Amino acid sequence: MKVHSWTGLILGFALTAIGILSLIFFGSFAGLIPMLIGFGLVYLNWRGGRAGLVVFGHICIVLGCFLVTWGVYLLPYSRPILLHIIARPLFWGLISIFGGICANYHGFCNCVRKQNKTID
Predict the structure, then answer these.
(1) How far is residue 57's CA from residue 81's CA, in Å, rounded to a whole number?
(2) 45-96: pLDDT as tens digits
(3) Is 44 within 8 Å of 58 (Cβ atoms)?
């Protein structure tokens, strides 16, 4: 199989490694989030095409819902300062959900379909 993007593949392996190391050394299940996004990036850049984008989009949406729920539970402990807004899971959950929706829509876009048909 052909690698579609070396940058995305390396980033995916790095996120997977960070997630696994976080699970091992800190014992925190928060390490599952970068690990699963890393798996999705590796799959996307290894497989490519529509299937890779749709799988990556669904992984982002599921993890985004988890992060939003976690962020809502942390709201009573957060202060309304910029650091707490950007560093808490609610913000990243919304980014992940909307990025996953974008990846899913792009997976069914004509530009990806035409790209797959023109590969020799």
Answers:
(1) 30
(2) 887 778 888 888 999 999 999 999 999 998 888 888 888 888 889 999 999 9
(3) no
N-terminal to C-terminal alpha carbon distance within the chain: 14
SS3 108: coil
Per-domain boundaries in the chain: 1-47, 49-120
Residue labelled with tokens 């997977």: 16
Map residue 2 onto helix, strand or coil: coil
List C-alpha distances in Å: 24 to 10, 16, 67: 21, 12, 21
pLDDT(120) > 60: no
Structure-token pair, residue 116: 């797959």
Q: Report yes or no: 93 and 71 within 8 Å, Cβ to Cβ.
A: yes
